[in-house]
Design brief:
6-stranded antiparallel beta sheet, two-stranded antiparallel sheet
Length: 144
């Protein structure tokens, strides 16, 4: 199983609370997982990642590198890990032109992206009010 080494981990919005109204995480209701959030992860996995794994050629476009099966599998494992930690599903999962996969999250004025690079690292970026406020690299322990 892939594990990532990082000084920071992605968490639901409670971590980035600006006001007391932002403190309660949408990922839990009375300490239990919200079934709707779990369903959102499942839909993204089924409609994107698992479909790409079955047929990566659907991502072929002129001038781009298609994500490898290994990169797609890494994205599936990361999605499963984030879902298991109670992180709300991203607003979208998209391939990038260099063979990577990007998870994009948005919570009010906070935007985060996890860019799974073909080499196995994950770049985590956090933007607040459209300004980059954090950048971190996570390293795939299986590849180091």
């Amino acid at each position: 199983m892939t594990e990532y080494s990082s000084s920071v981990t992605l968490e639901p919005p409670k971590r980035f609370a600006i006001t007391s109204a932002d403190v309660k995480s949408p990922a839990t209701i009375d300490g239990e997982r919200d079934p709707e959030l779990r369903a959102a992860w499942q839909e993204l996995a089924d409609n994107s990642l698992l479909e790409w794994q079955r047929d990566p050629s659907q991502l072929d476009e002129e001038g781009t590198t298609t994500p490898s099966i290994e990169t797609i599998q890494r994205a599936i494992r990361l999605a499963s890990d984030l879902d298991g930690r109670g992180v709300p599903a991203p607003i979208r999962i998209v391939p990038d032109v260099q063979g990577g996969i990007v998870f994009e999250f948005e919570w009010g004025q906070l935007f985060e992206s996890l860019h799974i690079q073909p080499a196995g690292n994950v770049e985590h970026r956090r933007f607040y009010r459209n300004r980059l406020v954090w950048r971190d690299q996570w390293f795939d322990r299986d590849r180091t």
